[in-house]
Amino acid sequence: MKKIFHNIVAIFVIIIVFLLIIPLPTQMLDFLFITNLALSFVILLTTMYIQEPLEFSVFPSLLLITTLFRLGLNVSSTRSILSNSGYAGEVVKTFGSFVIGGNLAVGLVIFFIIVLVQFLVITKGSERVAEVSARFTLDAMPGKQMAIDADLSSGLINETQARERRTKIQREANFFGSMDGASKFVKGDATISIVITVINLIGGIIVGMMHGGDIQTVMATYSQSTVGDGLMSQIPALLISVATGMIVTRTSSDSTLNEDVVKQFTRQPRVLFISGLAMLCLILIGFPPVQVIMLAALLMVGSYMINKKMKAQESQPQLAVEGPPVKQEVTSDVEFYRNLDNVYNLLNVDPIGMEFGYSLLPLVDEKSGGNFVDRVVMFRKQFADEMGMVIPFVRLQDSGQLNPNQYEIRIKGESVAQGEVLIDHFLALVPEDRPQDDIDGIDTVEPAFGMPAKWISSDQKIKAEMAGYILIDPTSVIITHLSEVIRSHADELLNRQEVKNMIENLKKVNSTVVDDTIPNIVSVGDLEKILKNLLREGVPIRDMETILETMSDYSATIKDTDILTEYVRQSLRRVITHRFAEAGQLKVVSLDAGVENMIMGSVKKMDGGSYLSLEPDIIQQIASSTTEKVNEMRKVVQTPIILTSPVVRIYFKKLVDQFCPNVTVLSFNEIDPSVQIQALGTIEIPKQE
């Protein structure tokens, strides 16, 4: 039984082929006609309850199968009508007698009206919408792909989410392309139905006359069968046509069609009230007053009830969405600050804060349709999944000291970055191989990465996408800038309380390693220092279990947290390798052995740690050689990596941060053996003659 269910579609298609060849008994025809009608209702209702077209992606194939099914039934019923003196089953007879109702002319007119409505209105409209949807979906693919690449590069989504979005875009293109072709089946089905109806009527009259029947009896018998057969074909076809139009006009939504219609019709109660007044005016020109007054009263009462419900919802208190609730100030500042607790509140410093000019407030205000807070929440989730740290809340507020289009990012109360966006424009990143003056716009610099860009208006959007520009909306520009600032200051945002929260979270899955290590072997303060060292160099701290176990192994003999960090990094080699390697390959610049020996010979150890003591001219030579190699490497890879021996890495990293801060320095022990290392050069200093 299970195998039959899994192959039900293939079996159904084979049955359709047999319908075209094998004569069927009328009882079987009745059952198949009812099955066709039920299947059409199921398909129509399914298109009304889905939230986006891709939820019913098999619809183009179903359109072909149901069309073949109806044609097979038409052939079988035609065979029965012509061979059984106009009898093709009770279903056909019932439909024919019900529609004709004793009047042949009226029945035929109603039948042809139904066919023409389907052919000229629904089918033709669905075909045109499917064609336009397919064209616009294909034209929009490059822009959607660029938007995915922009979100991926800015860290708003990960690789898995990007792959899912790309797959969805491809499925949309395939779906609407298939719908463009499949809609032709519906048009052909309506055409052939008219032809089959004419054949049944004319052929039936000829067959009846050949068997000696009188013209009146023959016309009544075969016209009834023809109309019944045609309706049993056209009504399911009409339902499928409506379903086709429904699915190609359906846009993506968070709810079904029924919910969307009710929600959007009830958003404007004033419209219902004015419509009710307009209906009352129809009485003045002679419309029946009872029916008009009933409908007008229904519209007005509905308007009153909806308006009352909306006012009740607006009067409810709004909850804060980002950050703790802000206390309302009293009328007198003197009275407010008589309370010392209120004065102490002034000393609190927000970990992350953002201030906006007044023109940018609609991006932040949810009542105005802004989704900035939601984007911050999603970035918090993505950053926790990537780096293993939960960033604190972001304090959002307006500022009269900024320009209207400016925003400012603050870390612990101090400004660390500023930017400027145009709320009604798109930021277009300029491709490297195109001149900057081929698109009209305002020249600017992308705030997060410093790339050349332009602010272009909405009417330039399609032209810019076709020219290869990557377009970013203003909210995404600010979120990308904020995400990069948080990544670069993650070590500052990690505090003692957050470390304790992480320890408590680890206790839920592995309480043994926490109880054995903290605070007996490792203090919370030392753990915080090591986690900050890792975050400072972009190393994720999700694997707290490995970090604690490594610290437990070496803390008894090593008290220097910088050296202890090196051992932790080596234990996290797979994490580090996965973060910096691309396609199983690591492109690096190595450090010359002579430079390494020179650095190690200059290390001075003290009770509080160790430091590097080199001659200024040697430092200048190392800086010049490193800068030269890094600049060459930036032409090949996005993130330059310098590879050193384990004992030198920490000292060289501190040295190179002074003149080339955004360079990754790794040691051999931090790279997984499965990764292939490709050396692009060597950092060395010229030998003294």
Automatic annotation (TrEMBL):
Subcellular location: Cell membrane
Keyword Coiled coil: no
Membrane topology recorded in Swiss-Prot or TrEMBL: Multi-pass membrane protein
InterPro entries: FHIPEP_1, FHIPEP_3, FHIPEP_4, FHIPEP_CS, FlhA, T3SS_FHIPEP
PROSITE patterns: FHIPEP (PS00994)
Gene Ontology biological process terms from the UniProt entry: bacterial-type flagellum assembly; protein secretion
Listed PANTHER family: FLAGELLAR BIOSYNTHESIS PROTEIN FLHA-RELATED, FLAGELLAR EXPORT PROTEIN, MEMBRANE FLHA SUBUNIT-RELATED
Protein name (database record): Flagellar biosynthesis protein FlhA
Taxonomic path: Bacteria, Bacillati, Bacillota, Clostridia, Eubacteriales
Gene: flhA
